[in-house]
Amino acid sequence: MEPFVYQNPTKLIFGEGKLDTVGDEAKAALGERILLVAGKGSARRSGLLARVEESLKAVGLGVTLLEGVDPNPRIDTVQEGVRLVRRDRLTGLLAVGGGSVIDCAKGIALAAPHDGDPWDFYSRARTATKAPLALGTVLTLAATGSEANGNSVVSRPATGEKRALYHPGLFPRFSILDPVLTVTTPPDQTAYGIVDILSHVYEQYFHRVPETPLSDGIAETVMRTVIEAAPKVMADPGDRAARGALLWSSTVALMGLVKAGARGDWSCHMLSHELSGRYDTPHGGALAVVFPAWMRIGCKENLPRFVRFANRVWGIAGDGEGAALAGIEAMERFYTNTLKVGIRLSDYGIGADRIDEMARAGAAQNPMFPLFRLSEENVARLFRSAL
Ligand code: NZQ
Ligand code: ZN
Fold first, then answer.
1. Does 57 share its domain with 204?
2. Which of 5, 108, 183, 362 could disulfide-link to 81, CB 3.0 to 4.6 Å?
3. Residues 46 and 193 in one domain
């Protein structure tokens, strides 16, 4: 195992009916005046947003609303949020939605205490010198893990860029994980979320660090839990037990536990952002394309891990490259047959025209512990194999 420091300050409030605690939690953690951040309409349509707003007002909190955050959230919405925070001298933020809403709220929380362009933090032109505003979340979609980590991912459509940042002050103070709030998630978004959860585990699983039995076991349990729950929610979106299993899996996959003692690669996430930034491809869709292609190139680089993946996650007996490839194929079948998610670039209307550009940008990315080097040639080969 590698040495590690684990610190996750987010208070996780899991279970049916836990939404009722939102007013008290917000009052305790977010100050007196709150920016309530939501997406394009699902939370308003379901009545969730009105319930949250009422709960906040019932405990005496002032509320300013920012609605309309896009999937693949945009930097201009972050800028608008910063403007509202300053105008109303707000003290904290409450994100009600999926990862996009949470990440946008995190961008606002980080940028609001600083002058200048919020994009500078995502482009690494500068780092934050002041503490971010306090943030809480009410999660509505099992996917990103943003509810219990310090990451934020935002797009800048003007340049086709999508970039992630991390700040320890961006861990939410609390997150309400109420499975009931996820049952309205449509099948395609449910499926993309499932791909995302699995992808977070993959990023932290295919490492070469010896003797990591506990993180391996956590990773494999999360993957098996997700694979078992997936057909249940795809067949019956109202299956609350399966929704709950997915929700907790999404949080555990990216709250630091899987990585503890091991190493994260994150090449595929970096490459997926090249697709989402340029083509607005849904995050889970981009990962469903990139990961199988990456695995086919990478499995020879760390064959024992890929055999273990096939054996323990997909129930495939055997060893050697044949078993490793059978594991990758089982994953592909699960994506296309069970989740109905496309695994080719063409499934998302993407052709060969911008592969060279994406290969250049991909090669400029710098994962800390890549399974293989993201050279321009390797990235182009990977994207071409996924056409
Ligand atoms: O916008 P609304 O109307 O709310 O609709 C959303 C959106 O269209 C809808 N939705 C969410 N919950 C729903 C629902 N519809 C009905 N009922 C519900 N209960 O689902 C659509 C997708 O929502 P979004 O928030 O975009 O999805 P997700 O949670 O997958 O977030 C994706 C974003 O998170 C980033 C991705 O790159 C992407 O931008 N990520 C963030 C990470 C992090 N902060 O740690 C890590 C991830 O790897 C990822 O990069
Ligand atoms: Zn992801």
1. no
2. 108
3. no
E strands, 170-214, are 174-177
Determine, yes or no, domain membership for 5.
no
CA 322 vs. chain centroid, Å, equals 31
Kindly calculate the radius of gyration of the chain based on its CA atoms and give it in whole angstroms: 20
pLDDT tens digit sequence for 109-161: 999 999 999 999 999 999 999 999 999 999 999 999 999 999 999 999 999 99
| pLDDT band, residue 366 (cuts 50/70/90) | confident
| CATH number reported for the structural domain that contains residue 372 in this entry | 1.20.1090.10
Q: Dihedral of CA 198/201/206/212: which sign?
A: negative
Report pLDDT digits (tens) over 286-330.
999 999 999 999 999 999 999 999 999 999 999 999 999 999 999
118 shares a domain with 173: yes
Element holding 163 (H helix, E strand) = strand 161-166
Q: Which residues sit with their C-beta closer than 6 Å to ligand 1?
A: 39-43, 71-73, 97-101, 103, 140-141, 143-146, 149, 151-153, 181-182, 184-186, 189, 192-193, 196, 254, 269, 283
CA-proximal residue: ligand 1, atom 8 (nearest): 71
